[in-house]
Amino acid sequence: MPVLRPFVLSGGGARGYAHLGVLKAFAERQIFPEAIAATSAGSIAAAFICDGFHTDEVREIFRQQKLGLSMEWKNWRAGFLSLKKVEEALKKNLRHTTFESLPVPLYVAATNFANGEQKIFDRGPLIPAILAASTIPMLFRPVDIDGVPYVDGGLSGNLPVEPLLLKYKRVIGVHVNPLTPYNPAGGFFANMERTVHMAIREPVLKSKQQCEYFIEPEGLGQFGIFDFSKFDAIYTIGLGYTRKLLKTMM
């Protein structure tokens, strides 16, 4: 007999592929989302799941579309990366284009770039909200929605559990950014990414306390947010880790 539970999915760039592995392991135990709150990479996976796709179907879409980043050599002021491939995949494959029409409720968290506040989208057009939630400042141009610039939701809460707390119980949290041991020889990009993780970690730990179960697959720390070519390895870590954990949890 299928069991429905609320899930909250974090951001994490390419590590977001692990969300599919985690959800696959739960599906094998007949546990499926009754609602999902998510941000950034987590919101991309969540959109397909809430749209009625199975994890295997989403995995195939990601593989076929070679989901990742597009380079656009704009000036630094505007940002030089785009989410064009993500946008194309969403437009091509999603069956529903508004939050209200989704079979499973979805809450997408972005950050208001004007005042820094978290914004939860659960009404209106789906795709602009997902793109806004996935837009890393400086690398991407903010996404304008109703005259307000929005960027990555991870900045204001990388595990946005709040929308679920009033309506649902026994939340399952999935965070794909384990903090790895400090390596002084890590280099500029490794240290920059570590700095971001540490800056957003405290709100994640608070959100963790609101979850009955918290999944943070070990091994994902070896991958960077732009390791989109490592799809299979990232997915496999999420799947294998969660399968093992579920044997002891349930």
TrEMBL record:
Residue ranges annotated for the PNPLA domain, each copy included: 7-165
A GO MF label: hydrolase activity
Keywords for this protein: Hydrolase, Lipid degradation, Lipid metabolism
Lineage: superkingdom: Bacteria
Residues at the catalytic site: 40, 152
GO terms (BP aspect): lipid catabolic process
Record keyword Nucleus present: no
UniProt entry tagged with the keyword Lipid metabolism: yes
Motif (GXGXXG): 11-16
Pfam families (UniProt xref): Patatin
Name assigned to this protein: NTE family protein
Organism from which the protein derives: Chitinophaga eiseniae
